[in-house]
Structures are given as structure tokens and as C-alpha cells.
Write a structure and sequence with these properties.
Length: 379
């Protein structure tokens, strides 16, 4: 089979690597507009088990990546200068560039032909391939070319966010909520390398307008965010890398394949950064696609199987991500709660965690929360 993979993000690189490794006779050509070693953004975070979901199928990749990840057990919430830790909610993170470099090396190692610095301008350039894997991200060319056939839809969260880095390192994944005279901000910040952290700043639309961010350059916005979070950054700067203000786009496609083209990763669906699963979802899509194609003897049956098996799983996750994002859409209101009630509201925001589960998962936090609740009831 001759396969063109469009896009060298985590989804495209992983699919190309996996297919070529398992089918050495196949032609797998990957096209990526950026040079190898260039990327946007800073770190990406995975949930507790990090890459363990890969281990059964691909222990070598897990062993190559895992030692380079930063990991921690707790989440810290900072509200109006007070802090509380929620124990037992572990995460692991890695620099996006570092992850891509590792995946690039693995794809090269199995014989994928990767054409970096090559923008595919038109699908005519991919004529002659048996299969086109569209791993070309949010603004996918393949999807844009057949939006109606894919049943594409997009809507936007109302909050604004900008994705920065900083050399300030934080001991745990942290969320810092700050009220100013013109509105409220939240930062999601976590260490992804021994000397670097992601620092994603979010605010509601009213705050964004009150500050006049629409009229400011990237650098002016960055400086204001540094002032807002001066207490957290502790003298460190925010580092910008295409750090423009954006609204989170909710991408969905009803039909995951059309003719010989199939969507994976962000081209297919997005899941809000507050549940930190976009990279994992893209890699899991790649695995599901490879397995579905292997299970069927012809291409269209394989593509139909991919959608039938994977869509219900992704739908569930996207629903959880939407519920989580809704909490953030009204975070200035939640900030009126006391610290412990605020933390409880945060940790139960997806509606999937009840008190019993919390007592097992986060015993120290729950003991503290229940003590404060009982004290409140007695007062
Ligand atoms: C603010 C923010 C924070 C995030 N935080 C996290 C996180 O903590 N954890 C997490 O797991 N995920 C996170 N994500 C999501 C994550 O970045 C994406 O979900 C993930 O990168 C999707 O992988 P992908 O391979 O589908 O697409 P991408 O990583 O977007 O890769 C697509 C690639 O295709 C290339 N391309 C596009 N068009 C063309 C073309 N015409 N020709 C050639 N090349 C092309 C692009 O250059 C790009 O390299 C975050 C996203 C945002 C916006």
C-alpha cells in the first residue's frame, strides 16, 4: 500500500512510524510544512499514566519517551494568594518539540520518507496514493476541501487564552486565579522540563475587552500578563511563541473518512486543554486506524471499522472535555467561593467524581475539605 501522511504532529508521525514498522514493504511518505525541529507551543501534559496506554503495543517508544517526562502527584490551586493541594491527581509532561524529535527519529528509523519544510498546497499533489491520512491539525487542508462530506462543524468557547512558556519551574501542575480591578485571570502552569514550564493564561471576554488586548501587540499582551501574574512568576518572564489570544475551537466531524482520505487528531476533533488530552487522542487515533486497517482486507471496510470502533470512545472524552471547559467559562463566578469550596467545585467539575471516589483518590484533600465543611455547618 502507498500511504501519504499529511502533517508531522504527534498523530501523523506516530501513524507513519507504526504502519511502516509493522508493514516494512509499504510506502509511507510524510509531508510536514515546518522544518524538522521547529514547532509552536511549549509543553504538553498527559494524565496520570502518561504513555502507559502505549505500552502493550509499543514498549520501545514508551521506554524512549518516559525518562524525558516530568511528573508529579498533586495539583495546586492558588486563589487570592492562598493555596491548596489536591493529592492523587498525577500528571506527566514533556516539551512538544522534544516529543516530536523523538517521534521523528523513530519514524526515520523504520524507513518512513519524511519531507519536512514541504507545504502541501493542493490535494492534487497527493494523487496516486492508495490512502491519505489527514493528520494536518486544526486547519486541515483535507477536511477543508471536503467539509460537507466529512460533516464538519466548529464552535468556539467564549474565553480567550494565550499559550506562553517560562523558565520559572513549578513543583506541581498548578492553577492560579487572580482578580484585578478590570477582571479575573487564570493560569494553567506546569513544568515540562527541568528548567521550563508551560504557562497558559486564560480570561473571560469581558476582562479581555476591559484590558483592550484586541488592540495590543503580542509583546504588549505578554507584558500585561507578566504584571498580572508577577506573584506567581517570581521575577521570571513569560516567553512568547506565536502566543496570540485565541478562542478554543471545538472541532467535530460526523464522518471520519471520505473516499481514500481519513482524518485523525486535531483535524478530526478537539478536546479542551483543561483535560490535557489532545496529544494522547491523536496518538490513540493513529493506533486505532492502524488496527482497523489491519483487521479488514479492503480499504473502505478498514476505514469504516476505524470510525465504528473509535468514534464512541472519542465522543465520551469530548463530552467530558466540554463539561470541564464550561467550568472555566464561568471561573470568575467560582472565585467568589472560599478556598476549600472552590477547590471542591474545581475537582468535581466534570461530574464524573463523587465524594466516595474523592475520598479514595485524594484522601488528604477530602479530609481537609470535609473538616472545613463540617466547621461551616456548625458555625
Ligand atoms: C493552548 C493549547 C494547549 C494544549 N495543551 C495540550 C496538552 O497539555 N496536552 C495535550 O495532549 N495536548 C494539548 N494541546 C493539544 C495538542 O497540541 C493537539 O491536540 C495535538 O498537537 C494534535 O496533534 P495532531 O498531530 O493531530 O496535530 P498537530 O500537532 O496540530 O500537527 C499537525 C501538523 O500538520 C502540519 N500541517 C498542516 N497543514 C499542512 C500542510 N498543508 N502541509 C504540510 N504540513 C501541514 C502542521 O505544521 C503540524 O505540524 C493543546 C492545544 C492548545 C491549542
Amino acid at each position: 500500500m502507498r500511504i501519504a501522511v499529511l502533517g508531522g504532529g504527534p498523530g501523523g508521525l506516530y501513524f507513519a512510524y507504526l504502519w511502516k514498522k509493522r508493514h516494512p514493504a509499504a510506502v509511507v511518505d510524510l509531508f510536514e510544512q515546518n522544518p524538522a525541529g521547529a514547532t509552536w507551543g511549549f509543553g504538553v501534559v498527559f494524565s496520570d499514566q502518561a504513555l502507559e496506554f502505549l505500552r502493550a503495543d509499543d514498549p520501545d517508544t514508551v521506554d524512549a519517551i518516559a525518562p524525558r517526562m516530568e511528573s508529579w502527584r498533586n495539583i495546586t490551586l492558588n486563589l487570592h494568594g492562598e493555596s491548596v493541594e489536591i493529592d492523587g491527581v498525577g500528571f506527566a509532561a514533556i516539551g512538544r518539540l522534544e516529543l516530536l524529535k523523538l517521534l521523528q527519529a523513530r519514524a526515520e528509523g523504520v524507513g518512513v520518507t519524511a519531507r519536512y519544510g514541504t507545504t502541501v498546497q493542493s490535494l492534487d499533489q497527493l494523487a496516486g496514493y492508495d490512502l491519505i491520512v489527514a493528520a494536518d491539525g486544526l486547519n486541515s487542508l483535507v477536511r477543508r476541501s471536503f467539509e460537507g462530506d466529512f460533516g464538519f462543524s466548529v464552535s468556539y468557547s467564549s474565553n480567550k487564552f494565550a499559550w506562553y512558556g517560562t523558565s520559572k519551574t513549578f513543583p506541581t501542575l498548578s492553577q492560579t486565579f487572580v482578580a484585578t480591578d478590570r477582571g479575573s485571570f487564570n493560569a494553567h502552569h506546569y513544568r515540562y522540563a527541568p528548567d521550563m514550564s508551560t504557562f497558559l493564561v486564560e480570561c473571560d471576554r469581558a476582562t479581555w475587552q476591559a484590558y483592550g488586548f484586541a488592540e495590543m501587540s503580542v509583546d504588549e499582551s505578554r507584558r500585561i500578563c507578566e504584571q498580572v501574574f508577577a506573584g506567581t512568576l517570581d521575577g521570571h518572564s513569560l516567553i512568547s511563541n506565536r502566543s496570540v489570544w485565541r478562542n478554543f475551537p471545538w472541532v467535530w466531524n460526523e464522518h471520519w473518512w471520505h473516499r481514500n482520505m481519513v482524518l485523525i487528531g486535531d483535524a478530526l476533533h478537539t478536546a479542551h486543554f483543561s483535560i490535557g488530552s489532545g496529544t494522547r487522542l491523536a496518538i490513540e487515533d493513529a493506533i486505532a486506524l492502524a488496527k482497523a486497517l489491519e483487521a479488514e482486507s479492503n480499504l473502505s471496510d478498514g476505514l469504516a471499522r476505524y470510525q465504528a470502533e473509535r468514534q464512541p470512545i472519542v465522543k465520551k472524552l469530548v463530552t467530558a472535555a466540554r463539561t470541564s471547559a464550561e467550568w472555566y467559562e464561568s471561573f470568575p463566578g467560582h472565585m467568589k467561593l472560599g478556598l476549600m469550596d472552590f477547590a471542591y467545585s474545581y475537582i468535581t467539575r466534570s461530574g464524573r467524581i463523587d465524594d466516595n471516589r474523592l475520598r479514595t483518590m485524594a484522601p488528604q484533600f477530602m479530609a481537609r475539605y470535609e473538616a472545613s465543611r463540617d466547621k461551616g455547618a456548625r458555625a
